Amino acid sequence: MEEQYTDSQLVTQVLQGHKNSFSLLIQRHQQASFKLSVVILQNKADAEDAVGEAFIKAFNALPRCRIGTNFKSWFLTITYNCCQDILRKRKKTVRQLTLEEIEDNSGSMDSPLQIVINREEKKEIWAALNQLNLEDRTAMIMKYYYGSSYQEIADTLKWPLGTVASKLNRARGKMRRALKGGGIDGE
Amino acid sequence: MENSHLCPPSETIQSWVDGEVEDIGLQIHITDCKKCQALVSNLHRENEMLFQFLDQIPLMPDLSNKIMSRLKEHANPYHEMHSLFSYLLVTSLSLALVILHYIFTGLLSEEFWPVTLAKFLYLVSSLSHTVYATLKYFLARTAVGEPLLPALSVVITAILINIVYKRRISNA
To answer: What is the complex's ipTM, to 2 decimals?
Structure first.
């Protein structure tokens, strides 16, 4: 029954005092927040911390959340800011996560050979993604995984709206150059 | 028929693929231009590749119980009462120290402490009278239609209420 409520309805319920509705919001958005955090922080433990902190901040900031705001994008902004806070507190550079540490083939129906082939492709994608700077990486994930609009990306990363398209275009170009055999005709 | 010389920049095609641009002319051009169709096809393929890759990042353990426990702890009435009690205690102690200062510094002077206490009480009553006179002045200005002072008072009050309200929410 609770699955039928939209994010806006759940937010309204929380503001009316039904705090348990926030639990449903957590279950809906924690994985998305975690994936963004892992890619930014390159560390699963820090990513979990960032997600936890982001939800606490989101709860406290709910009364200030404007009506009609897309909760998912708003929450991703909070997650991004929490990741920034953790990065600032870090005293030393954390080594980049390897693909083996993040991939999960346990549910894969592919043959072993296909898994190896896929892994090679994934390694290239992961390496190409990590070549981008933090903001470009976040923008790519927000757009092409979460389907955020250019306006939402601009709000999160504090970019001028008119530059989002060109920055995404440049980020894609960097990824293509980093990928083996990449390149698009007509560029 | 290809109109390759009219091909828009790849950035524009990307924005169109991203659903940020609605341009009938562009759509018609893409329909007619094989070069742009190839670009659109590659963009879709890249988007799909990135999506599939990110979708395979493993899930994290469910944090909902842990987070709700933390939120309940902060919302604990005891916690709120404790905060209020601490606030009242600090305020009361500060006032008490001020009063004691005026009373006991009287002992160091040549006057008797009841005289100093009387002086202190006179000071408090003067202050109350000053506050009253100030309020009366504001009300008088309002009565004659002076807009600035009442407006300023409302604005300052709104700002203070907003600050206090936000502080209470952030401490929840």
So the answer is: 0.77
Q: Read off the amino acid at residue A139.
A: A
Contact A84, A36 (CB under 8 A): no
- Between vectors from CA A180 to CA A179 and to CA A184, what angle results, nearest 5°? 70
Q: Is A172 close to B46, i.e. CB distance below 8 A?
A: yes
What is the C-alpha R_g of chain A? Answer: 18
* Predicted confidence (pLDDT) per residue in B133-147, tens digit: 887 877 776 666 666
Give the count of beta carbons closer than 10 Å to the beta carbon of residue B16. Answer: 20
Asked if the Cβ–Cβ distance from B42 to A184 is below 8 Å, we say yes
pLDDT tens column, A59-118: 988 888 777 788 888 999 999 999 999 988 876 665 666 666 655 555 555 555 556 557
What is this structure's pTM? 0.64
Rounded to an integer, the average pLDDT of B72-88 is 62
B73: contact with A, CB 8 A cutoff: no
Q: Mind giving me the DSSP string for B43-89?
A: HHHHHHHHHHHHHTSPPPPP-HHHHHHHHHHHT-HHHHHHHHHHHHH
In angstroms, the Cα distances linking B50 to A5, A15, A118, B44, B57 are 30, 36, 13, 10, 11
For an interface test with B, which of A29, A41, A42, A59 has the most B Cβ atoms less than 10 Å from its Cβ? A59
Alpha carbon distance A20, A24 (integer Å): 7
